[in-house]
């Protein structure tokens, strides 16, 4: 009965939303038919929001990156904090111990050797993705997730990996501190937090878009270490209360 | 000359540092709290751009009288709450730092999506902090409802972005009345129900009983004073500046808030535990304050918001303290406890009487203005408010009499009959109780003292947020 009611409720809400939005009078644009001329996104594409800046917004070849890290960098800092506080919640609530969860199937030789080959490749691709975040699709969040996936593999195959895990705490804190310090330099030198104060360079070059790639590398490291910490916490058990 | 972004960034920075140096996290917490509390008073009014991009292309923080009052209230109350619950903090100092950053961001930001991010930060920290009492089932309940609420809010702003083309709150406040009826309807409903979960309005508040009736000395003042005030302030911002509701939808929203008020006040008369009574009273106040914001009584709402925040700070922390020392907070068993602790008893009594709105206390001035405002709308709402206040008076005075007078009924009340119940002789609670009590009495005798200030605070609510230079959009 409960399930029936919830399904019914979902349909009622869906019908309500659909009937209100799908109406010629409602001015809700159809997919792909949005008139961008009076939307902020057009200005992001044209890159002409502010011509008086010393380094106008010409650096980043990937528009998504310039929106995420440059125009709305403060949101990204907030998203990092959401991930950070979630990781912290996992660590606090699982009462993380030192013991690694013992799997029913012991890691055998083939797994160990295979993981050693694959983790290297995954790590390289992950790092490539966040270093080239301002040039190609990708960026800090997917790159960090890839790093965490290689950590998961290491975890499954290596019994003693946990002892090396403490470095992630330092990495997590240090990259967060660095992002904020870079932001504060902008605040004190240019009166605006997270101001992009480095020269933008030439589009398409690795060293371009000013602060954006540096921030993205830090974001990638932070996301990677946060997710690795979550994985680490989920895979341990016991310990003192 | 302090940039308000520091109020958000400093707690974050300290939290990141705290991950690396876990042993110092508690000192980092208090360092951050004190620093923020000092900085708050040096913030100047204006619009602060982030990343150097002018709004609406970048995010900006808006400090007008209203949000300035908001950050002062939040940072001061947060410091006081952490001092009250200092012993309970333990490993939770980093989530506390992050929740401070989130709460400041919620009040300061002038961007709809940025608000969502800070809303998430603040609520996730609240989930974590609420696990302090060890009732994980209630936290899970809160988590599920809170996530649904914030998803509804997110859906609302997706529709706003698709139609208005910008996420800036000032843009929304200017363009909202130009949107079509359907869009207005759906956006108001989604944002209202998103915020109503945290604001404890009735169909969305099933989490409150589990969380609020199990609080300890840290979470009690934190949730009932800091989090509650923040969400009321935000609610006021959204439904006074940005979204104007009219027609049947307005009636439905008003009905929801005042039904919450009456229903909670009625439930409070039926329980005997201090914390449970205060929980229901909090829900009731939530209904009253949000309702006042909806009918455009920003001035009265802010008056009552201050009244509620300080009264609940004292009352909830006292109740939590009683519970922690006796593992029960039933009123019958705690009869006469204030004879032993007259200072706390004084603060508790004044807070309760002020919350009811008796003359001579600050609350009377607030209630008087509330009724005045309500009479401008129609005659049903003041009647409902008076009925609710009457119920409030009944259970609070019954509770106060029990807590001051030891012994059974018809028995002569003597000192000997004082119960075995005890409290921690917390210096902070006594000081806070006495200070708040005196403030309430001062505010009752000289209402002009607070009146002008609150008048200034609530003025921005009457205008739309249109400080943008012309021609940007």
What is the fold's blueprint, element by element?
The complex is a heterodimer of chains A (241) and B (473).
Chain A: H1 2-21, H2 40-46, H3 63-71, H4 73-93, E1 99-100, H5 109-131, H6 140-157, H7 166-190, H8 212-234, E2 236-237
Antiparallel strand pairs in A: 1-2
Chain B: H1 5-20, H2 25-40, E1 46-49, E2 60-63, H3 65-84, H4 93-108, H5 112-130, H6 136-164, H7 169-175, H8 181-199, H9 206-212, H10 219-242, H11 247-269, H12 274-294, H13 298-326, H14 337-340, H15 342-356, H16 362-377, H17 380-404, H18 427-445, H19 448-458
Antiparallel strand pairs in B: 1-2
Helix pairs in contact in B: 1-2, 1-4, 2-3, 2-4, 3-4, 3-10, 4-5, 5-6, 6-8, 6-9, 8-10, 10-12, 10-13, 11-12, 11-17, 12-13, 12-17, 13-15, 13-16, 13-18, 13-19, 15-16, 15-17, 15-18, 16-17, 16-18
Overview of this structure, please?
With 241 residues, chain A is mostly helical. In chain A, helix 6 packs parallel to helix 8. Chain A has a two-stranded antiparallel sheet with strand order 1-2. In chain A, 61% of the residues lie in helices and 2% in strands. Chain A has one domain (61-237). By secondary structure, chain B is mostly helical. Chain B has one domain (5-471). Helix content of chain B is 71%, strand content 2%. Chain B is globular. Chain B starts with a helix and ends in a 15-residue tail after the last helix. The model of chain B is unreliable at 468-473 (pLDDT under 50). Chains A and B meet through helix 1, helix 2, helix 4 and helix 7 of A and helix 1, helix 4, helix 5, helix 6 and helix 8 of B. Chain B: It comes from Petrotoga miotherma DSM 10691. Chain B: Belongs to the CPA3 antiporters (TC 2.A.63) subunit D family. Chain B: This is NADH-ubiquinone oxidoreductase. Chain B: One of its GO terms (cellular component) is plasma membrane. Chain B: It holds the Pfam family Proton_antipo_M.
